[in-house]
Amino acid sequence: MTDPLDTTPDRRPGGRTARVRAQVLDAVRAELAEHGHEGLTMEGVATRAGVHRATVYRRWRDVGGLLVDVIAAAGEIDWQPPDTGSLRGDLTALNQEIQESLVLRPSFAVALMAASFHSEPAARAQTQLWTDRYAQCEILVERAVQRGELPATRTDARSLLIAATAPLYHQLVLLRTDPDPRLPERAAETAVLAASAGAFSVRGQEACE
């Protein structure tokens, strides 16, 4: 799972509308990284993007609209979960992607998450993005079950994925610690050991559904 907050989509051919959108969203990312969500303004984005202010207001209406589109752009990235042949390898590769993204642009990640607390549309968009990303990565757990790496009982894939990736965000975003090159593998290994012991198995009534 590439970091959901790394919202720079692959460039695709397009007309003027696509170019303007790309310029504006690049400007939003830069403004968030430099000034935080408090300093994000329609005028600042228009100036940085080299686009007329009226164009920005007409298409995005307000700062909330800009934030929603930046988050939506993440869903346009052509990305597939890693497939290394083992659950530990897959989760390690996933964590390495996340760490790289957070190290490259930590201020942007923090600013975008903070902005979601001030914009309900942005909060909804961000929640949907995370939901989609975790759903996309559930294939890692499905493959692990098929390979016999996890118990035959149903495994809560999302809980496992959250447990595996959370240490990266905790250390780099919340605590602002220096990146530890060993953390991606260590967090992955811990999650795999817990999953192998049945920590994320769904039991009882839920397992019968």
TrEMBL record:
Pfam families (alphabetical): TetR_C_11, TetR_N
Residue span, HTH tetR-type domain: 18-78
Keyword annotations of the record: DNA-binding, Transcription, Transcription regulation
Highest taxon in the source lineage: Bacteria
DNA-binding region: 41-60
SUPFAM superfamilies: Homeodomain-like, Tetracyclin repressor-like, C-terminal domain
Gene Ontology molecular function: DNA-binding transcription factor activity; transcription cis-regulatory region binding
Protein name (Swiss-Prot/TrEMBL): TetR family transcriptional regulator
Species of provenance: Streptomyces albireticuli
